[in-house]
Design brief:
With 459 residues, this protein is an alpha/beta fold. The protein contains 15 helices and 16 strands. Helix 2 links the parallel strand 2 and strand 3.
Length: 459
């Protein structure tokens, strides 16, 4: 991406972004609603796009980063970014997002560049969406819908697809009004005394509500299956570690490095959405689970947070979070703040956290010093080269919760199953060998302490 420049703070500030061409039709919505003209209207064909943002707070550098991220999101969806403009305002215009003069300027750019779509760096109200499309005479998409659309492209599992579809419908429902003159059509009225019947808008809303109810029922069943898996881990007191962080920070690469999971790794936003859980062991042999979760971005749509609640419960149920930030990003501490904001939203703000600075080989020394000053317990690693991975493994082992019960046992040599269980699920404090078997002192879960009761040491 070429550099983005912002001048201070004139309403006519412009950004220019030129990127690679990648044309492809974006997935549409559910075929079950293919007969609804408004839904078909929203089946994005992002090809040649112009970006527009409103800079309301923060520094010029932060405004540039937000627009650069929007450009990357657009490219991930399969678009060619032609141009970008930013307007400095105290708040977005309630009618058209940007001011009326900027709308006219934006229309000139759309015509000159022969753009198909305008993407706004914010969430538009139904009124703003309608007014902009009327003025610009091209499709208008906001940041929220763009992210939802990328999720729809990348979801692979049945649960992931249902979660994204639910989020899309929840976003669409309040925005049906005014999407095209076809909404004024009426149906159901035959004869003078039948009345006007249902409008097309009412029919579309009813169908979407039906789909939302159906998807929620499906997801409820999937949540039960996931809860069974979690309850099994809790019953055996297997510690759980979840990898969280900004999208494209290297979470999947880190999971592969720690567990040989073989998870898809791509230099692309939201390359993996479906959570991956793998079992692994500490150096001493204690077993724990490691989960790779969906990546976050600034202003993650609340519809996604709600729809992905069952997936994000992997984060809530974790004993330790590895909060991964991208050492190659110009503002890694901004990433960290954005992730912590989402964690607070889902009720995981109090879970024990270990900050992991990935791509340590790319970070400038002064920025690394600032991170270490702000986050003194952070660990630097490179999932690509393996640098710092051994230190990270040791820190994870130290921070796993200790089992509850202290036992002093002599395990017969022919009970290798109990010896293995002690190493997998317990914290070994002392280990020696006698003529009768292995003498061990350990902290273990209650269920294992009960199995070891016959072998309690008398001395």
């Amino acid at each position: 991406m070429v550099g983005i420049t912002l001048s201070q703070p004139t309403p006519d500030t412009e950004l220019h972004v030129e990127e690679r061409a990648a044309l492809r039709r974006v997935e549409g919505l559910s075929t079950e609603l293919s007969d609804i003209s408004e839904v078909e209207y929203r089946q994005l064909r992002l090809e040649r796009v112009v970006l527009v943002g409103v800079w309301t707070e923060g520094t010029a550098a932060q405004a540039k980063l937000s627009m650069a991220e929007l450009a990357r999101l657009a490219e991930t969806a399969g678009s060619q970014v032609l141009d970008a403009i930013v307007q400095r305002r105290n708040k977005p215009d309630p009618s058209t997002f940007v001011g009326s003069g900027k709308v006219l300027e934006l229309r000139e750019i759309v015509v000159a560049e022969e753009a198909d779509t305008v993407i706004c760096d914010g969430e538009l109200s139904p009124g703003q969406l309608q007014a902009l499309e009327k003025a610009l005479k091209v499709k208008v998409v906001d940041r929220t819908w763009l992210i939802l659309d990328i999720f729809a492209q990348h979801a692979r599992s049945r649960e992931g697809k249902a979660q994204v579809e639910l989020a899309q419908y929840q976003y669409m429902l309040p925005r049906l009004r005014g999407w095209g003159e076809a909404l004024s059509r009426q149906s159901g009225g035959i004869g003078a005394f039948r009345g006007p019947g249902e409008t097309k808008l009412e029919i579309d809303r009813r169908r979407i509500r039906t789909q939302i109810a159906r998807l929620r029922r499906q997801l409820a069943g999937m949540v039960q299956a996931r809860q069974v898996q979690r309850s099994d881990r809790r019953r055996h007191q297997t510690p759980a570690v979840a990898i969280v962080g900004y999208t494209n920070a290297g979470k999947s690469s880190l999971l592969n490095r720690l567990t040989d999971a073989g998870v898809l790794v791509q230099d692309e936003l939201f390359a993996t959405l479906d959570p991956t859980v793998r079992r692994t062991r500490t150096e001493s042999g204690r077993e724990y689970t490691l989960a790779d979760t969906v990546g976050f971005v600034r202003h993650l749509p609340h519809q996604l947070v709600e729809a992905f609640q069952s997936t994000l419960d992997e984060v809530n149920d974790a004993d330790l979070l590895l909060n991964v930030i991208d050492g190659g990003d110009p503002e890694p501490l901004g990433q960290l703040a954005a992730v912590r904001e989402v964690l607070a939203d889902i009720g995981a703000g109090e879970v024990l956290e270990l900050v992991v600075v990935n791509k340590i080989e790319l970070i400038p020394s002064d920025l690394l010093a600032e991170i270490r000053h702000r986050e003194p317990k952070a660990v630097g690693v490179s999932a690509h080269t393996g640098q710092g991975i051994d230190e990270l493994k040791a820190l994870v082992a130290e921070r796993l919760p200790l089992p509850e019960v202290r036992v002093d046992v002599v395990v017969p040599f022919d009970r290798g199953d109990l010896t293995s269980a002690l190493h997998e699920h317990g914290q070994i404090l002392a280990n020696d060998y006698t003529a009768d078997g292995a003498r061990m002192s350990a902290l273990v879960p209650g269920w294992l302490a009960a199995r070891l009761e016959p072998y309690q040491s008398k001395g």
